[in-house]
Amino acid sequence: MATVTFLGAAQEVTGSCHLVEAEGLGRVLLDCGMHQGGNSVERIRNESFEFEPASIDAVILSHAHLDHSGLLPRLVAEGFGGPVYCTRATADLLPVMLYDSFGLYERDLERYNLKRRRRGEEAWDPAYTKADVAELLQRCEGVPYRQTKRLQGHASVRFLDAGHILGSAITELTVTEDGRKKTLVYSGDLGKRNTVLMNDPETLTTADLVLMESTYGNRNHRDYGDTISQLRDILKDTWNANGNVMIPSFAVGRAQEIIYHLGRLYHDGELDPWQVYLDSPMAIEVTNVYDRWLRQLDKDDVKELDAVGRSSLESFLPTLNLSLTTEQSIAINGIDKGAIIIAGSGMCTGGRIKHHFKQRIWQQRNTIIFIGFQAYGTLGRRIVNGEKDIRMFGEDYIVRANVETLGGFSAHAGQSGLIEWAGNFNAGTPFGLVHGEADSMKALKQKLDQKQIDATIPAKNEQLVF
Hints:
Strand 8 and strand 9 form a beta hairpin. The N and C termini lie close together (8 Å). It is built from 15 helices and 22 strands. The protein is an alpha/beta fold. It folds into 2 domains: 3-219 and 411-465, 4-Layer Sandwich (Metallo-beta-lactamase, Chain A); 224-409, 3-Layer(aba) Sandwich (Rossmann fold), CATH 3.40.50.10890. Helix 4 packs antiparallel against helix 5 and helix 4 (88-118) packs antiparallel against helix 8 (281-292). It is globular, with a radius of gyration of 22 Å. The protein has helices at 40-46, 66-69, 72-77, 88-118, 130-138, 224-240, 254-267, 281-292, 299-307, 313-316, 326-331, 353-360, 379-384, 415-422, 438-450; strands at residues 3-8, 17-22, 26-30, 58-60, 84-87, 140-143, 149-150, 156-161, 169-177, 180-186, 209-213, 245-248, 275-279, 320-322, 339-343, 367-370, 389-392, 395-398, 402-405, 431-434, 455-456, 463-465. The model has no long low-confidence stretch (mean pLDDT 95).
């Protein structure tokens, strides 16, 4: 009997992890992600596996975002010894993501342990090490899109383009039990159609069970043209107020997309006064990875680069300044006006964006632009929800900066896009909704019910048979 047990991203957005068990397949994880929000040291310390890592035969990874991949090194540290299958571009991104994540965790743990020692308390050991990251990366096998990869027994996996970020995949897992083939399709994170740089999500028609994300299951995104108009207006108003713009951004996907949009504005003559700062070593490195895979991204968008004689995302935006070092990041504080600062983390849980908030969030002339999903419990979500009193670095700050959300830049499909993708499957195909907050899932299920699409909302540790 083939089963799926939902261990993470069950009625929540982050911490994606689903355990598949089947005859001839063994025990395979779909993703192994960390939760987002809160203190990184306590968050990782509180993460736990509800299975023996050594009992897992393989991991199938949908994409490189940390809420899908971030606990892979810890899985190795606790005994996992199998392969990790993903797309080739995801395998190229993982070293950047996982080493950066470990570096942040290591520095935070060092500071945390210093405080514990001062209080006469015992230091905490790291949950995983840099060597665990290295071993995990050695276990990764990149598989080209649409190529069937044979697993143990009669099982196989195939990756299709999810259109979410570079390398993101829809997973089609096929197993054979009692002579009958069974297919599980896992959407991973589905992108929007007609998103810049990304290809449209591919579609399938046949499955015995579909696991589909539902991040934006309760709403659609703003029209793309309206979003660009909103961005133009925000930049104009902030410029006239002698202010600066701060954009919290995920290093993978959102940073590259906003650079592309700003590049378009530049070439249309609508960005000349602004200087743009990409203040994220990880986002800079990821942008270099995107450039290596540029010819596999959306062909029409790549043609736009070619049309202006540019061969990379960085060169497409001539006013882009790269801030690699801490000194370069600090130097941005001396800019009085006219700076667009793109920095991580995307949900404001850490990284350099909080240092820029410290310098500018209390000034009414500045603007914060959110371009990605803000999970419950994160600083970004609190600011989007209108909280005016926040605490950072042990100090209190009043949010006086203008707060704007550009929903049209989301990397996720909206409600109508999810319903359209689901509608390609044969009638009667069962769905399990994952990777969404409860209200989002309920709204999407109601819409799917109206389309006669059978969807359930599994709770954590619930199991479905396929």
